[in-house]
Amino acid sequence: MHLQTGSFGGGNQFATLLTDHLRKLGHEVYFDLTPSDLDLILMTDPRTTLKSVAFGPVEIMRYIRDVHPSTLLVHRINECDERKGTRALNRILAVSNEIMDHTVFISSWLEKLHCQQHPFTTSRSVIYNGADPSVFTYQKKELPTTRKIKLVTHHWSANWNKGWDVYMHLDHLLSETSLGDQIEFTYIGNAPKLPFKKIRVVPPRAGKELAQALQEHDLYITASLNEPAGMHHIEAASCGLPLLYRTSGALPEYGASFGVAFHGPDDVEARLHELLHTYDRFTHALESYPYTSELMCRSYTELFHSLISRKESILAERKTNHFSLARQIKKHLHLIWLSLLNR
Description:
Elements: H1 10-24, E1 40-43, H2 57-66, E2 72-77, H3 81-84, H4 89-97, E3 102-105, H5 108-117, E4 124-126, E5 149-155, H6 164-176, E6 183-189, E7 200-202, H7 207-215, E8 219-222, H8 232-238, E9 243-246, H9 251-255, E10 259-262, H10 268-277, H11 279-285, H12 293-309, H13 311-317, H14 325-342
Parallel strand pairs: 1-2, 2-3, 3-4, 5-6, 5-8, 6-7, 8-9, 9-10
Helix pairs in contact: 1-12, 2-14, 4-14
């Protein structure tokens, strides 16, 4: 993986956090397949056309066949077609997964979605995303009495499925109803070119700058559709912001006990008022918010140790013919075709 600086989405944040954690423990971490004796390869995305991706399944197959056959292979899956309305990503992930020894999904919802559509490794687990508590620090919140309540969301992507049907409905409510006398709404990140009336849009932020911006607000909303997990709501909850979250994707899996759920534009206003009435209960619950980078990284480290301790039995079950030259060529052509469909 090629780590990117600044604001660049949840996958990049995950890689940065896990790398720092592993190196602090004395482990060596590389971002390419140059070393000839890797213990384990973690593939985070098979799409080598992306600038953040350093290698894909074909490069891994060559490494196993020609360099180090006993390297263990783990596939972390954090994406799906349903998230952005693409057509072939789920199949790309499944085809790439055929050579893997273990699969990590970032939510149970995502695991169920993929495994109902395609076969994946029988050895698999769910490890939840987590934010860095040294950056996204909990602050006890109270609703203001002398100013408007500040509602916020943030997304790297400007894709419509990030929740713009709901955000534009809120924009209408804030401009046309009395809700605008009580609430102001800020969107941090890349936004589509839409005729906003009341939404305040600010550029993407990352790290401590983002944390500070979130902490200046009182409530957080995520209306994302088919979200595999995401980092945005985790970062907000880590800062102590009660959540107004959509009943879609993995959001209920992460948001339960830390906010109020809504279905869409039709009930978002009612659920917002419900959250305001139960605000103190959720600010208290967020004091023990569990989705931290420490837990996430520790879970990956424990998984890696467990796999390595069982290396002999894992390799005995591996289908070595999957790494033949003919298989490599076939998979390469198949992935090219699927990538063209995915555009």
